[in-house]
Amino acid sequence: MSRRQLMVAAVLLLAACALPFAVSDYRTFQFTLALVYATALLGLNLLTGYNGQISLGHGAFYAIGAYCTAILMDQYGVPYWATLPVAAAVCLGVGFLFGLPALRLEGLYLALATFALGVSLPSLLKYHDLEKWTGGVQGIVINKPQPPLFFSSLGLPINQDQWLYYFTLAVTVLMFVLAWNLLRGRIGRAMVAIRDQHTAAEAMGVNTAMVKSLTFGVSAMYTGVAGALGAIAIQYVAPDSFNFFLSIVFLVGIVIGGLASISGAVYGALFIQFVPNIADEISKAAPWAIFGVFLIGFVYLMPTGVAGAVRMALARLTRKAQNP
Amino acid sequence: MEAFLHQVLAGLATGGIYASLALALVMIYQATHLVNFAQGEMAMFATYIAWTLVNAGMPYWPAFLLTVGFAFVLGVVIERVIIRPVENAPVLAVVVVFIALLIILNSVTGWIYTYTIKTFPSPFPTQPVFGKYMSAHEGGAIGVTLVVLLALYAFFRFTPLGLALRAAAQNPESARLVGIRVGWMLALGWGLAAAVGAVAGMMVAPIVYLDPNMMGGVLLYAFAAALVGGIDNPAGAVFGGFLVGVLENVLGAFVIGNELKLAVALVLIIGVLVVKPSGFFGKVLVTRV
Amino acid sequence: MALLEARDLRAAYGLTRVLHGISFSMEPGTITTLLGANGAGKTTTLRALCGMVKTQGDIRFQGAPIAGRATEDVVRLGVAHVPDGRGTFVNLSTEENLRLGAYTRKDRHAVEQDLERVYGYFPRLRERRGQQAGTLSGGEQQMLAVSRALMLRPKLMLLDEPSFGLAPLVVKELFGILRQVNESERVSMLVVEQNAAMALDLADHAYLIETGRVVLSGTADEIRRDDAVRRSYLGY
Asked: What fold does the segment set B2-275 form as a domain?
């Protein structure tokens, strides 16, 4: 990472840390959700942006992570932070397993299969034989985490919303750093090679089957961890919150934010978190109409998303600075 | 035994609806190699138009015909305006455009008509006509579906325009060489697919009630049907539709319960894609390296 | 007035320029052949005439400019193109293929007559009229492709390597029918061929194309009798 990029990241991190003290609790909560979405979008972007596998059903992995956390906390009294590794492991496994048959499916067909997953998931969650685990239609309510005593003992009172924000921020930063590392390395390059020139990558000795399944697993893990964080932040999971439209929201996020871009996950998350808040005042249907119009607009006019536009703008500014 | 027969017949009725929608999907796939994820929402939107007409006092069958005509025009317009620019774009771009179309149609309908569930009239009498095995609407739905399918078959098989459409779908370059305007043939195909979808929507609405999200499950079954039959085979799509309808009903009533019916579609879709992607009757695609 | 005039045709596939300024002309009722080695640009010339590739330059058909017009429109002017590889609609029946050739025509009765005439030229097609076109042999598919073009009642037929992959006897039969059609129905033909000997037998005029340029032209007789040309350019 260049010195300048590091500086930008540091500044952003500092701003993020200062945020809860500058805005209301509700706003803090909204930013917590934005962080959750950022992680979820990063997951989907790893699969679709970097590896070229289309998923229209990533909401399913988000749901699995969320339910993992909810069930562990509600039925087994596991502390909230300990549920994260479990959610991660479960989603990694499920994603990898889903990725194995998905290997044979290209483009449209994979989109179809994941579409089917996304549409049918709520009914699976409502299945009454599983009700004692999933809580059926009513879902599960969990307790809001308390900030560790450490802070109040130091005389630094932070409330629950602020603590949740910092907790989510920490996990999100960790996930982003891990992703950045992964993409820089051999596997990351293999992922992109498979996306751009599948046959050539295979001919060069890349184990495409392994990389693709692994990417699916890691992608599911990221979105699953996001789901777990989301469940903790909202303290409620129910089948109807994880319907097909959640998967679409994720798709909107990565297209608007920018495919194959880590910063794109952040832009996209901010978009999908805050646009509905504004649009909701017009009508319940308005946010989706806006998403749809933006989707089409971005495909035609800005296919590299906000991240791409920012990159181009920065490049132009740098060129101007070098040739005044 | 009676209950089983009833489920089979009801399954044939819904199967006819799935067959129609699956046929629409296959028609578009044959011509463009694209899966129209928005097919369900297009049908739903047309059904709402029908509802508006009927509510304004128009008798059922004129409203039905007018809606079919409207859906046809809508399909043509969508192809020319929204799909044409991305015809040759990478797969992800096309999928995104289809999804965008899906959510725009869904949200615009919700905006105009609100999300409260409405009843949609059936043109068939309410008393059971076929004894306890099948309601009049179910029988009527099967009838309407068969009429539509036969009409389409006759169109493609016996008319010059139908022949031109088939030619344009199979071999666009040769079609141009005999003077066929391939672009307009594609638009025509989309129009027909949209019209068929509208019929499916109007037949299913009395059963599942009119609401912007009513076609989600139906579309999933139609996908399963199209895949089972072979995504490039119209007759296969029809066969698949009836098969899926019967399976859904029979399994739902006797084996797995109603809640998991959608999961049947999921299993079918993934199963077919993994085990035999060309379906029962489709052609096996060989990719040249 | 010349039936077809091409002046300074330039065409490229992406960044690769294939035609560097081809010029030729055809009188009505004649058969002209474009000869040359693989990759010389013969097929591209035909595609340029039909608007299937981006071209610069001037093309006039019966005096009217057609450069850059869409294929479907050029067809409606009476130009039928038999592409290399035949372009058969393999999933449709033989007769459906033939009827598609007449797609742009409005004179139903004459179309039926033409169908009969075409079956007269190629009785084997009549035998296989209901059969799926993809199951026909190579020779039969070539006959089908030529017949489909004839169903347009074209003024000009473009044929791209009609002898490709066919046994010599079959080629002889086919070219005999082409000559017959040309004489009795006054259909002009532009034939691209690698088989120079047979092409020069059939044609009235010939152009020799090499890497996107016309290097030689004349009547078929002259070129056939010129030993030096035959040996250095045509290899026999």
From this structure: ABC transporter involved in vitamin B12 uptake, BtuC (1.10.3470)
